[in-house]
Design a protein that fits this description.
By secondary structure, the chain is of the alpha/beta class. The chain has two domains: 153 residues, Alpha-Beta Complex (Aspartate Aminotransferase, domain 1); 234 residues, Aspartate Aminotransferase, domain 2 (3-Layer(aba) Sandwich), CATH 3.40.640.10. 38% of the residues lie in helices and 18% in strands. Helix 11 packs parallel to helix 13 and helix 12 crosses helix 13. The longest helix is centred in the last third of the chain and has 22 residues.
């Protein structure tokens, strides 16, 4: 892909200015429309990345921009010492679709995880009369919950944790979808269990219904807080609002973010039952979380989801995209598996996928993301059409053929 002098200058300047925490692709995106992105040279890209599953409604979905612009003219921020109408409206809608009882809005998914972990700790502390030693959390191998010190502590990838240890103590890692592994780690010190109903960064592995039901039984038997991390797989991406709803297993705490704001930074942790009153005033807080602007975004997203039957499209297109990818699997000897649910799909290869992703981006203008070394994560906007799916798979196929020819 040839770059103009201007594009090269922009990339060079960014490299000098931005803290080096990412290896970025050589593209400077300028704007988006629907499910397409455009760089500063005007080149069109088909987006099957969605800002890491954030832009569920794509770009400039009817009614979304207008809601944000209207709120800008009213009020952006007042702090959580006061009430605001968008937070009330967004809360009502989010609790309705989730079946949970209470919601606390955060700035991100990582912050939502921090709140969820604090609920587990505080619940055990109160249960034991304020002198609890029950502080251990059971998390899953290959999980991903965020980059802050608390969220990183329960992320099941040693390579991510090692440079920043010591992290928070008392975290044990069980095998995903293995109840015996979880049971073996429960002790009198355990206060909670955290799991992704569909592991995202870990390779797009759905939890079985039996596993989630078993976790609920373990949590009830030992009076633990069960936390479901729906940051990536939630907000409709699986075909239901939240992936745990397939199993009917309700958590004590659920985290969500990403597509909740469609690009505006908002997350949330939601509570049910015994978790509702686990923390009180003074135990937790956030300066910006739940402000009128971000809640207006979430309220608009939730309104659009219901009004335009977004989940119906996810279910229809999820099956269609899976079918197209399975056809591609028959044609390419390096594809070993296609798995997932709805529009969170993983295409597993027996070779590293970094060259595939780069080739697709630079030559076919298809934006993709990996999930580990050998898995392409397919997480497009939830509004894609069959034509979009056909075009994406065609571009991916051409990229694969080009690599084979090298």
């Amino acid at each position: 892909m040839q770059r103009t002098d201007l594009m090269k200058e922009e990339i060079c300047e960014a490299e000098q200015l931005l803290f080096k925490a990412y290896n970025r692709y050589p593209v400077v995106f300028d704007h988006g429309d629907g499910v397409h992105l455009y760089d500063t040279e005007g080149t069109e890209y088909l987006d099957f990345f969605a800002g890491i599953a954030v832009n569920g409604l794509g770009y400039h979905y009817p009614g979304y921009d207008e809601a944000l612009k209207a709120q800008v003219d009213k009020l952006l921020h007042i702090s959580n010492y006061f009430y605001n109408p968008p937070a009330i409206s967004a809360s009502e809608k989010l609790l309705k679709v989730s079946g949970m009882d209470r919601v606390f809005f955060t700035n991100s998914g990582t912050e939502a995880i921090e709140g969820a972990l604090k609920i587990a700790r505080k619940y055990a502390f109160t249960k034991h009369g304020g002198q609890s030693s029950a502080f251990e959390i059971i998390a899953m191998e290959h999980s991903f919950h965020g980059r802050s010190m608390g969220a990183l502590s329960v992320t099941g990838k040693k390579a991510y944790r090692a440079p920043f240890e010591p992290l928070i103590p008392g975290v044990k890692f069980a095998e995903f979808n293995d109840l015996a592994s979880v049971r073996s780690l429960v002790s009198e010190k355990t206060c909670g269990i955290i799991v992704e109903p569909i592991q995202g960064e870990g390779g797009i592995y759905p939890a079985s219904d039996e596993f989630l039901k078993g976790l609920r039984e373990i949590a009830d038997e030992h009076d633990l807080i069960l936390i479901f991390d729906e940051i990536q797989c939630g907000m409709g991406r699986s075909g239901k609002y939240f992936a745990w709803q397939y199993s009917g297993v309700k958590p004590d705490v659920m985290t969500c973010a990403k597509a909740l704001g469609n690009g505006v930074p908002i997350g949330a942790f939601l509570t049910s039952g015994k978790a509702d009153s686990a923390m009180g005033p003074g135990d937790h807080g956030t300066t910006y979380g739940g402000n009128p602007f971000v809640c207006a975004a979430a309220d608009a997203v939730l309104t659009i989801f219901e009004r335009d039957h977004i989940l119906d499209n996810v279910n229809e297109m999820g099956e269609y995209v899976r079918g197209k990818l399975l056809e591609l699997k028959k044609e390419n000897r390096h594809i070993t598996d296609v798995r997932g649910r709805g529009l969170i799909l993983g295409v597993e290869f027996d070779v590293p996928v970094a060259p595939v992703i780069r080739k697709a981006l630079t030559e076919e203008h298809l934006v993709l993301i990996n999930a580990g070394e050998n898995i392409i994560r397919v997480i497009p906007p939830l509004i894609i059409t069959r034509a979009d799916a056909d075009e994406a798979v065609a571009r991916l196929s051409r990229a694969l053929l080009a690599l084979e020819a090298q």
